[in-house]
Design goal:
With 501 residues, the chain is an alpha/beta fold. The chain has 3 domains: 174 residues, Rossmann fold (3-Layer(aba) Sandwich), CATH 3.40.50; 158 residues, Rossmann fold; 107 residues, GMP Synthetase, Chain A, domain 3 (2-Layer Sandwich), CATH 3.30.300.30. It has 14 helices and 25 strands. A 9-stranded mixed β-sheet has the order 12-13-14-15-16-20-19-18-17, sandwiched between helices. It has a 7-stranded mixed β-sheet with strand order 7-6-5-3-4-8-9, with helices on both faces. Strands 2-1-11-10 form a 4-stranded mixed β-sheet. Strand 3, helix 3 and strand 4 form a beta-alpha-beta unit.
């Protein structure tokens, strides 16, 4: 029987309602008190109640890193109402399709996200729309979607919790149920990485749409101040660092790379001793640059939505013991977590030093090994090294992208016979998708690379849009007639080399 989540939710309510005059977050420097946050959280839930949205419905939330969206999460969780994160970086038509297919009884979003296509989707579902206005801090029910009027079924949770889009660590990205009873694990994961004393301000660079949504809850439980940055911007981030003087910051490798590329002054970053992160392997050269230029040590970790948080991490004690000797490692398994590496074909456990798929047992989730498609090895001291993806996934600035999804979208274009996609190196975000497209013989459609990029942008999130599209006479193939991905990669690396000449 699942562990009861109510005691934890009661603790969250107490934390949310204490010290109402204390400033708990800012949005690009504009402050918000804990009392304001709690009032907005309650008002959002009251709107759902007044509109007769069923208590067991999983409410869709088009998540942004903004104050009212944070309040929505806190309000729903405090009221024991389930929520499903909707990825906001989609074209309006794709968002509308997601809403209809997901059968949401209600959707909460920034007012500007309620495009005609999205409102039509709500009406089709008989769903309620609650609009958030970041500028005025007002909330309002949409006039033409103001009452739950669904005659059919609607999305509901088996057990109250968050439903988050996975990063693709264990396969194709999918929505993962994250029961409220597991939120305590998110809090403890963050607490374990804290230095002595009060936690420093959290300058938020992770998107709250995924597993980082748990950080909202953890920050409230740990009395940790949040500085929200909706879309990462080096200048805004540096301004927050100057203002808040944190002892450490967090983010994916792409953020660290952008900071380095911007040649931010060492004086501006002088308060920072550590850079915490995860989501992708941190390049050793980037770690060295942070250390040599700024005196910032890297404390890395590894986790997934399917694991309900982090399973492998460095700690300050480990860093003090090993220093740079294990640079490039993700760290060691957290207490209670079991880690192993298995053969990619047979699934048999491999000895120390061998490379294979990473598996983990997370006791709070159950007794079974959870398979990932990440390649890893474990050294003689128990440190785990991330060696890439075994499924060809592209990691673009921390976002894990399945190349097949892009290829399938391109293949729906009336002029396209077949498409194939690979990841190619990119200095700023680590890797970007590049697509090769073979057109149908005799097609009369006027096709260009830019038009194909726009076609993908209409169907998929912005991170999936290929950075490069090349129209080819025929896709390269192996002897067995499969697309030769190695040759495809060479096609784009050769092109990049020519462009640099």
């Amino acid at each position: 029987m699942p562990q009861d989540s109510k005691p934890f939710i009661e603790q969250l309510r107490v934390k949310l309602n204490k010290d109402p005059d204390a400033v708990i977050l800012d949005y690009f420097g504009a402050p918000m008190t804990r009392g304001q946050l709690a009032d907005i959280a309650r008002a959002i839930v009251a709107q759902l109640d007044d509109a007769s949205v069923p208590a067991d419905a999983s409410v869709g939330l088009i998540m942004r890193n903004r104050p009212l969206h944070v309040a929505a999460v806190l309000g729903l969780v405090s009221a024991n109402r389930s929520l499903t994160s909707i990825y906001g970086m989609q074209a309006p038509r794709a968002l509308a399709t997601d809403i209809v297919e997901s059968k949401f009884a209600a959707v909460i979003a920034e007012g500007k996200d309620f495009t005609p296509a999205v409102v039509e989707a709500l009406c089709q579902n008989g769903a309620v729309g609650i609009a958030l206005d970041t500028d005025t801090l007002e909330i309002a029910v949409l006039n033409n979607a103001d009452r739950f009027d669904c005659t059919g079924d609607y999305r509901r949770a088996v057990e109250p919790g968050l439903e988050l889009l996975s990063s693709g660590t264990t396969g194709k990205p999918k929505r993962i149920q994250f029961p409220f009873r597991l939120l305590e694990r998110s809090v403890e994961t963050i607490r374990a990485g804290l230095t002595d004393g009060a936690p420093p301000p959290d300058i938020v660079t992770w998107s709250f749409a995924g597993i980082a949504m748990g950080n909202i809850i953890a920050n409230i439980m740990l009395d940790r101040y949040m500085s929200l940055i909706d879309r990462f911007n080096v200048d805004k981030w540096v301004e927050a660092v100057r203002r808040l003087r944190p002892a450490y910051v967090t983010g994916p490798p792409a953020v660290a790379q952008m900071i380095v590329d911007a040649d931010v002054s060492a004086e501006d970053l002088s308060s920072i001793s550590y850079y915490y992160g995860g989501s992708a392997a941190m390049p050793v050269e980037l770690q060295k640059t942070l250390l040599d230029r700024y005196g910032i040590a890297t404390i890395w970790a590894y986790g997934a939505t399917e694991f309900a948080g982090t399973v492998i991490s460095w700690s300050l004690d480990l860093y003090r013991q090993y220093g740079t000797a294990k640079m490039g490692a993700m760290g060691k398994p957290l207490p209670g977590i079991q880690i192993r590496v298995v053969d990619t074909e047979s699934g048999a456990a491999l000895p120390i030093g061998e490379t294979g798929y990473l598996e983990a047992i997370v006791p709070t989730l159950g007794p079974d090994w959870i398979r990932t498609t990440d390649l890893a090895r474990i050294d003689e001291d128990g440190f785990v090294y991330h060696l890439g993806r075994g499924d060809g996934a592209i990691i673009r600035g921390g976002f894990k992208i399945q190349p097949e999804t892009i290829a399938e979208a391109l293949a729906r274009h009336p002029a396209v016979l077949e498409a194939a996609v690979v990841g190619v190196p990119d200095l700023r975000v680590g890797e970007v998708p590049a697509a090769a497209v073979q057109l149908k013989h005799g097609s009369t459609h006027d096709v260009c690379p830019e038009g194909l990029q726009a076609f993908v942008r209409e169907a998929l999130p912005a991170t999936y849009v290929p950075a490069v599209v090349q129209i080819v006479e025929a896709l390269p193939r192996t002897a067995s007639m499969k697309v030769d991905l190695g040759a495809l990669k060479r096609l784009f690396t050769d092109r990049a080399a020519q462009d640099r000449r």
